Amino acid sequence: MSEFVQFFFFLLTLIGVGVIVSTKNVVHAAYALALVLVSLAGIYVLLNAELLAIVQILLYAGGVVILLVFGVMMTRRGSEDVLVSESKNSILALALSLAIFSLLVYVFSEATFESFESTITSDQVREIGVSFLTNHIVAFELIAFVLLVALVGASYLAKMSSND
Amino acid sequence: MLSLAFYLLFLLVFVVFAVYAERKTAAFIQNRLGPMEVGPRGMLQTVADLLKMIQKEDIKADAVDKLPFLIAPIIVFVAVFAGFSVLPLNAEVAGSNVSGGLFLMLAIISLDVLGILMAGWASNNKYSLFGSMRSVAQIVSYEIPIGLSVLCVVIITGTLDLQKTSLLQSGRGLIDWNIIQHPVLIIPFLIFFISGLAESNRTPFDLPESESELIGGYHTEYSGFRWGIFMLSEYGMMLLLSIVGAILFFGGWNSPLVRIGSWDLYTMTSGTVWGTFWLLSKALLLVFIQMWVRWTLPRLRVDQLMSLSWKYLTPLSILMLFICGIWKLWLIS
To answer: Mutation test of the interface with chain B: which of A12, A24, A31, choosing the one with the most B Cβ atoms within 10 A?
Structure first.
């Protein structure tokens, strides 16, 4: 059963990726991206990474993709009916992607992954929270600082453009 | 699974009666009679409307973006209904066993924006597009205060599991409810309720579908059954947020009655059926307040909507988060 579900999510991810690459309609590509991100969240659940899956849905599918679609819609230029992305240099792009793909395959086949006993507890949220505030406190504070800088920067930019 | 199956059936029945209740509430507030013709006091009016609706042709205009247009209502409904999966029903029947249940619910219901955007864009109609853009701006903004107000409860109860939250409030009836045990939660509840109205696109925050300006907003181009799915999702969202509000602040499936002397009213009114009854009654009461607000307050302007969220509710909920932390650390331990 679990394998079947896993296969289903892999298939959905592949369909989504295929649509992103092949479609010329930017909005359709964004919808397909949402499909990819949600199916990846499904795979995370099957790998027992519950919290990661939730965060993936909340931040990527519910946040990033929606802002992306929103941005595409806001920048629609009046005369066009459908937003179409052009593809240039397709041969070069294909060669580059094949090169990166083969590099990745090579690295993954050479690398030895340490197998570790999964220590899954029933309350992942609490454990991750505790480890954020104890072992990884510096990283946590650093992320908070970066986000604060981003927020201040965003509001500064918004203020600047409204003054024009 | 049992709770989800129950909620699906309950939601379908709820919508039929909620639409009737909404029209009757509106009529009462506006000093009219409301639907009176079909059935006793018009009680079967919604059933008749529903029968009419499912017989309609599934119209899609030539210029629509076919596939997104057709699946958008389904995405909206699935996103809202998936939120029900983590809700408990009574002391025996819990929802899906996810440690981050509440967090999962907030994450999944935020996906309904995607369906709304899809509907607005695929309709190829400027009213629909404006409606869906307003909807995104609104839902994304109000997700922050709703998340923070829920977090206030999570700080105090220390769990994201809604069944555990309900269990923590059981034992002595009314006096064990979060909002009575921790009066500091009154303001988070108000923030939760106001943001919930905005999340489910209800008046005074119904800008995405404001009938007078946008002729229905993102569902302008929809008719028949697909339009019905949008309505079902809107009422589903109202019910979902009301149930969550009842669980977080008003004791969930626990009986409100307290023990008076030797009369143990609490134990007398506890149990599987009673639990379901109390949870749904509390939720329906909150739904009624949502309807009451809808027919009392006028719609906000877009800038008022944004300033309410960003300048008042968000800072206030961050402040309440801080106060709840202090409450938890020093005042109740």
So the answer is: A31
